[in-house]
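From the pipeline queue, job 12 of 40. The input is one protein chain; the requested action is below.

Action: predict structure.
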Amino acid sequence: MLLFGSVSCLAEEAVDPRKLAAIKELIQVTGAATNSEQYSQAFSQQLVSVLRMSNPDLPDAAVQIVNEEVGSMVEEAFSAESLQKEIYPIYARYFTLEELQGLIAFNKSPAGIKANQVMPQLMTESMKAAQMWSRAITPEISTRVLERFQEEGIEIRLVPSTR
């Protein structure tokens, strides 16, 4: 039984060896190569959520097993560079060798090093701010949309929220 749907990998595209070396270096200097922990946490949370849908009283031991097995599998996959091999052609499509070299130079600079150090927390805080902002403007958006529906004679049925 699969808990997640099966996923087919992208066809491996040939990447110029010099460009590939630059992509690998860029991923290394930005710290993207060490994000297996984030992938593990995301997979584990998703799997635990799926399991809890049909097993609301999922024991802590089961959650621990999920965390251990997912962590182990993701670490193995990162060691084999299976995700990275999917990502290299994507970088190659979007960046020239010269652009990659420029990004590497920036990421090795003091500003680049600091950006890479603070970016995870900056993104987390930015996402929280965006969520709060969206909650703040949602009532006004709802009002405007419903008013426009009324003006245009569009009738809709609203289902009460269960939250």
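Job complete. Residues 11 and 34 are 24 Å apart (CA to CA).
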